[in-house]
Amino acid sequence: MNRGSSPPPPARRPTIADVARAAGVSKGAASYALNGRSGVSEATRSRVVAAADALGFRASSAARALAGARSGVAGLTLRRPARTLAVEPFYMELITGLEAGLAAHSYSLLLQVVHDHGHEIEVHRRWRHDHSVDGVLICDVGVDDGRVAALEESGFPAVVIGPPSASGGLAGIWSDDGVSLAEAVRYLVALGHRRIARVGGLPHLAHTEIRTRTFTALAAELGLDSAVTVPSDYSGEDGARVTRELLGVRERPTALVYDNDIMAVAGLAAAQGMGLSVPHDLSIVAWDDSPVCRLVRPPLTALVRDISAYGTRAARLLLAAIDGRPVGSVHDEPAHLSPRGSTAPPP
């Protein structure tokens, strides 16, 4: 071995000129083909894309920006603890639907967990500046949400997954949580329940406010003996804690409605741990059905909707906004009740 020899130089990153040469076209034609612009035939575009894949060519974000090209990426930021996201089926199904809707148009999803809305606004600003994404989706909107105002001002394509009352002038997709909650409460009242409590989510969120307002109005309309909402952080631990508090009084509720499935499952375990039988001593309703709702015993009565399809429709709405087409709020089908073994007439 020749110890004096130098190591081979690092492999050169392929350029647009290399792609053009391999495809047998001009650099301009190669750029048009890779950027999805008109002016080249589909046969040429396919040949250029195949050459780029074979060479491992990837355009930098700066080069795409200079060429006015799109990144082919949609951004999603979530302000949730990682431990909550890891166990919450709603977000897993939503993300699955988003990715399916985006992939159908050769887009990918960039997900970032943030610690507060200020951080989230900064992430949006950086993505926009770096041309990392072509548009963003935001969830868990609150009343007077600063993210909405910042995105409206920037003009960046954005879609809100939440009610129009909190979406400002941005396009959005939503389902009427008031309709769903009314269906669940009226079902429990029809069974004979007069003391119903709700383990709610974070009170500052727009959809939580809608549910709370609906629950309070229904209690007055139906003349319930008691109807209380206790907020929580959506975690199983908090759901169990609130459940024990609600059931630890003399005139305890005979039915509980939970704002997500994780809290409902934890609440079921907490009630059983207190010696209560579900559904004979206590009825339980979960919001947003999931496999875990059907696996516990008894299986939980739940508000059911196709969350994955909801995500896919949100992705299509964002792609329309990215394309510059006029978009507005889309009213999706609300969740409907699926009665199972966790609900029965009160004792």
General description of the model:
It is a single chain. With 347 residues, the protein is α/β, with parallel strands linked by helices. The protein has 3 domains: 16-67, lambda repressor-like DNA-binding domains (434 Repressor (Amino-terminal Domain)); 73-175 and 307-332, Rossmann fold (3-Layer(aba) Sandwich); 177-304, 3-Layer(aba) Sandwich (Rossmann fold). Helices cover 46% and strands 16% of the residues. The chain has helices spanning 16-23, 27-34, 42-55, 61-67, 82-87, 89-103, 117-130, 146-154, 177-191, 206-222, 236-247, 261-273, 291-295, 307-322; strands at residues 73-78, 108-113, 135-138, 158-161, 171-175, 195-199, 226-230, 255-258, 283-287, 301-304, 330-332, 336-338. Helix 2 (27-34) crosses helix 3 and helix 7 (117-130) packs parallel to helix 8 (146-154). The mean pLDDT is 89. It holds the Pfam family Peripla_BP_3. One of its GO terms (molecular function) is transcription cis-regulatory region binding. Residues 14-68 form the HTH lacI-type domain.
